[in-house]
Design goal:
- The protein has one domain: Protein Yjbj, Chain: A (Orthogonal Bundle).
- Helix 1 packs across helix 4.
- The two termini are about 15 Å apart.
- By secondary structure, the protein is mostly helical.
Length: about 70
């Protein structure tokens, strides 16, 4: 995957996250790039979503967008 494809994949994924959780700011969404636990904390605070449920929903979005995190790519 080249740099443009990776960026496009991220943009698609970030757009889906914003659609699903509209109260999140762009800065909140960027937490997914390296501060996932903080992101899940934001979801918990804004939506009352438990950590496990939030992780499950994010993983489902990642799968649907063919987006993988650094951890999954390794």
């Amino acid at each position: 995957m080249n740099k443009e494809q990776v960026q496009g994949s991220w943009n698609e994924f970030a757009g889906k996250v914003r659609q699903k959780w509209g109260k999140l700011t762009d800065n909140d969404v960027t937490l997914l790039k390296g501060h996932r636990q903080e992101f899940f904390g934001k979801l918990e605070k804004l939506y009352g979503t438990g950590k496990e449920k939030a992780e499950e929903e994010v993983k489902e979005l990642e799968k649907n967008c063919n987006y993988c995190t650094k951890d999954e790519a390794a």
